[in-house]
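FAQ: What does the model actually see?

It sees only this:
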Amino acid sequence: MVLGPTPVALTVDYVISYLKKNGQHADKVFKLTTKSLAPGETAELAKSQAFRLMTTRVHYPGQHRVAVQVNGQRHTSISFDLKL
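And it is asked to produce this:
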């Protein structure tokens, strides 16, 4: 919810921390939306992400993370286990 007297421009991204072969994580930022919210207005966003086989990225089983990023600042991170 936007608090204050003026509309706020938001750039919302999500960041997936992919588990690499060596056990480290590599972050990849994906664009979700850019929108303006009026005072008192809320927005609900949803997105799905496929973990299919690609030539550009190898997926490794184990703990990965996803976070929401609003205007360049990360919020609300969760972990999940990827099983192949």
